[in-house]
Amino acid sequence: MKYFSRIADSVRYGATRRQLFQLGGLLAGAWALPRDVFAGSAFLGQPTSRKGRYESIGVRPLINARGTVTIVGASRTLPEVKHAMEEAARHYVQIDELMDGVGRRLAELTGAEWGIVTSGASAALTVATAGCITGGDPDRLAQLPDLRGLKDEVIAPRYSRTAYDHAVKGVGVKIVEVADRAQFEAAIGPRTAMVMVLAGRASDVGPLSVREIASLAGPLDIPILVDAAADELVVPNPYLAQGAHLVAYSGGKCLRGPQCAGLLIGRKSLVQAAWMNSAPHHGLGRGLKVGREEIMGMLAAVEMWKTRDHAAEARTWTSWLDHIARRLRPIPGVMAEIRQPEGRSNRTPSLRVEWDMMQIPLAGDAVEKLLWDGEPRIAVSGAGSFLPFPPNMEPNISIVPYQLEAGEERVIAERVYAVLSNPPPKPRPLDAAALDVAGQWDVHLTFVHGAAVHSFGLEQTGSTLSGAHYGSFATRDLNGTLSGKDILLRTSYTEQGVRLNFTFTGTVTGDVMEGKVSLGEYGSADWKATRRAYRRPVRD
Hints:
Blueprint: H1 2-12, H2 17-23, H3 53-56, E1 62-64, H4 79-89, H5 95-110, E2 114-118, H6 121-134, H7 138-143, E3 153-157, H8 166-169, E4 174-178, H9 181-187, E5 192-198, H10 201-204, H11 210-217, E6 224-227, H12 238-241, E7 246-250, E8 262-266, H13 268-276, H14 292-307, H15 310-328, E9 334-339, E10 350-355, H16 364-373, E11 377-379, E12 396-399, H17 408-421, E13 439-447, E14 450-461, E15 464-470, E16 475-483, E17 486-493, E18 500-509, E19 512-518, E20 524-531
Parallel strand pairs: 1-11, 3-4, 3-5, 5-6, 6-7
Antiparallel strand pairs: 2-8, 7-8, 9-10, 10-12, 13-14, 13-20, 14-15, 15-16, 16-17, 17-18, 18-19, 19-20
């Protein structure tokens, strides 16, 4: 049975005919059999119905033409990675011994002093921060996230503030934001545990590049952590060469490793201190578990990165985009341009499709929704993650190929062609506002488990609304419309590494408005607002 399992695994993971012959004899003819011959094999764990596993639970699969973002599944795991994970699952090991062996191998592959596998790039930021604070001291580790008596500040250039700050703040630190060299120098002190930098153009050039930061933090032995989640794994590592001490990568993006894995590489003592703050060790990072399957799968992804033909991959991706572009360009008013990447992050060609709204009366957001709601479901631009915010009202979409499978480019080309060549009727204009909603409103929100009271301050000019949304965390700008009695309000706060984007829809009746609010990535809630009444002053 074990022998047949090896044959089946090889077919399942895309083995070549030569590899099957090496497994032995006439069974190499299995290469010529369709893969669904093996689909019902119990030991492969495949579904036996015609529906896929997602459809069997009422979930729609999609074609990801958006990019390697988590919300739509990121990238496709390499066959070699899957095989490594399957093999790892068949045997037990002691996890510390495993990570020690993987650390040595990652050092060989990346040129860094050491490396560990984490449960994603965000987890790498968390355990790296904890490692910089505790240094591997179990007493300090047990104290987290109570930082009394410990270093409790992390300096971050303004360009590095993102929603991923939470991975660092979760350790208990305060992030000190700086905008220039003078502010950076003033921020350095005895409480500084680390510097956090987001990889990108600003980290390569400019007043707060990694090199400039290293010139200030390096002599003081303050660790510098670079979040390079979406970067290619360049060897020798450019950030370490510029003076950084730690670099975090995602495993589920261009490396095509396990989606729930990442890398932390750099100075050996700091990486090992980070590992002490990771599972299976008890403490703040115990929930950030990475199993033997992900560890070996991630190692396989790094090994494959060294052998993959990246130039050939880029040519393939470009050819897919060229097919889509050639299909769309004959549509009157449509332009399609292939753009080649710059820098190390999200390094993939992309296709920008634009159109004349006089001929095709659709905004980019409308096209995204039509493709998302169609069959098959296709994600382009920001589809699937409530981004950008506010929605793209310009006549364009973008298509990213490097997580596609061969043949999907043809499906995408036909679906986009169908939408742009035969668009739905132009949306009717807004009705005149049926009433005046200017003033102060008390807003009651009901979440999945709990409630909150916010408030609106609204100003109105015709059907256009503006003002402020006063939330429990922050005040944000508000914009919207009132069409008849139908109200639409959008509010957004994106400072300090926070991303709060709300879209309120509903109806207004007198001094009451209510409906549903989209909370962006945080789901939805019910809302009801009542106009605040003011008692008129009594005149003598």
